[in-house]
């Protein structure tokens, strides 16, 4: 397949395909006319990359996981992928906890600011964030 066909089939822009190729995530050969030609494995890799990106894995991790899936057995792939996904899940759960805490602080601050009286006096910085002290 030419780059335009891969782009059309995958929805991935040609610039991204070239970038992924530079990083070694996908590969192509060159036809006699100089055009890139991709095999069907390029589409498989692009699907893999798409799912991995939805998990917020970085491109280095994705490249490593692609190498594992290509060279290893299903058991090896599972055993390699499991701790990566476990760690990613832990990171997401930590982020959720932090966001819940941030939300509580913002709600409390918003409630406090909403009850501040009108005044022509200079405002003290602790007035707006009194609920945090």
From TrEMBL:
<dbReference type="GO" id="GO:0003700">
    <property type="term" value="F:DNA-binding transcription factor activity"/>
</dbReference>
<dbReference type="InterPro" id="IPR009061">
    <property type="entry name" value="DNA-bd_dom_put_sf"/>
</dbReference>
<dbReference type="Pfam" id="PF13411">
    <property type="entry name" value="MerR_1"/>
</dbReference>
<keyword id="KW-0805">Transcription regulation</keyword>
<dbReference type="InterPro" id="IPR047057">
    <property type="entry name" value="MerR_fam"/>
</dbReference>
<dbReference type="GO" id="GO:0003677">
    <property type="term" value="F:DNA binding"/>
</dbReference>
<protein>
    <submittedName>
        <fullName>MerR family transcriptional regulator</fullName>
    </submittedName>
</protein>
<dbReference type="InterPro" id="IPR000551">
    <property type="entry name" value="MerR-type_HTH_dom"/>
</dbReference>
<keyword id="KW-0804">Transcription</keyword>
<keyword id="KW-0238">DNA-binding</keyword>
<feature type="domain" description="HTH merR-type">
    <location>
        <begin position="1"/>
        <end position="68"/>
    </location>
</feature>
<keyword id="KW-0678">Repressor</keyword>
């Amino acid at each position: 397949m030419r780059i335009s066909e891969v782009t059309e089939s995958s929805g991935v822009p040609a610039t991204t395909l070239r970038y992924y190729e530079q990083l070694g995530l996908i590969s192509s050969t060159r036809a006699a006319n100089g055009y890139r030609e991709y095999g069907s494995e390029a589409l498989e890799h692009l699907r893999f990359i798409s799912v991995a990106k939805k998990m917020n894995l970085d491109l280095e991790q994705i490249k490593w996981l692609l190498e594992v899936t290509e060279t290893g057995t299903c058991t090896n792939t599972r055993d390699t992928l499991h701790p990566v996904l476990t760690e990613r899940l832990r990171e997401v759960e930590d982020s959720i906890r932090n966001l819940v805490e941030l939300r509580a602080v913002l709600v409390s601050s918003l409630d406090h600011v909403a009850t501040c009286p009108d005044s022509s006096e200079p405002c003290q910085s602790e007035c707006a964030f009194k609920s945090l002290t």
